[in-house]
From TrEMBL:
InterPro entries: Gliding_Motility_GTPase (IPR052705), Gpn (IPR004130), P-loop_NTPase (IPR027417). Keywords: GTP-binding, Hydrolase, Nucleotide-binding. This is ATP/GTP-binding protein. The keyword DNA-binding does not apply. It comes from Streptomyces coerulescens. Belongs to the GPN-loop GTPase family.
């Protein structure tokens, strides 16, 4: 099967598509995470950081960052012939938050990436998904040189509900990202099952 086309006279398969968002603060690794697992060359909307953006783009702790996402990152993973996962990386800066409502439409769930050096940068994403009842997990991106903290301490600092998963991950590593995505899907399934149970009781 070639994606979107039939083979040897077989009728084309219309795949079921799932969407997962990758959110978090500026420079936390969203673009890197999408690129680590996408089977296609990710669609990126990166632009160079400029002097004009210096007052609003805080690069403290990520001084080496030279570009920023201005719309979204997009990647794709074909899980089966009839099942495709789309990844949408959201822009991190506040001036681009108006796009989040559009990107989150129909999302199965989300990953909120966190950097322990700038933990406060992911508060807005956590709040966004909590307010809209979109299941999410927090992935603490383990940057080289960043201090390591117990997961319970990070959970407390983020004031996460007990049922929100928190995992340590490496956005550069394909296997680590795959495990994080599996965690999102499992959490989303449990979240939906709980909601159905609540409705029927």
């Amino acid at each position: 099967m070639i994606f979107g086309r039939s083979e040897r006279g077989k009728p084309p398969v219309e795949p079921v598509t799932l969407k997962i968002l990758v959110a978090g603060g500026f420079g936390v690794g969203k673009t890197t995470l999408v690129g680590a697992v996408s089977e296609i060359r990710p669609l990126r909307t990166e632009e160079l950081l400029t002097e004009a953006g210096r007052p609003v783009d805080d690069t403290s702790g990520v001084e080496g960052k030279r570009t920023t996402t201005v719309a979204m990152d997009f990647g794709r993973i074909t899980l089966r012939e009839d099942l495709v996962l789309y990844l949408f990386g959201t822009p991190g800066q506040e001036r681009f938050w108006f796009m989040w409502d559009e990107l989150s439409e129909g999302a199965l769930g989300a990953i909120v990436l966190a950097d322990t050096r700038r933990l406060e940068d992911c508060f807005a994403a956590v709040d966004y998904f909590e307010r809209r009842s979109i299941p999410f997990l927090v992935g603490v991106n383990c940057f080289e040189g960043a201090a390591r903290y117990p997961a319970d301490d990070i959970r407390q600092a983020l004031d996460l509900d007990a049922d929100v998963p928190l995992v340590l991950c490496d956005a550069r590593d394909r296997e680590s990202v795959k495990e994080t995505l599996i965690g999102v899907v499992q959490h989303a399934m449990a979240f939906q099952a709980d909601r159905r149970q609540t409705v029927t009781t």
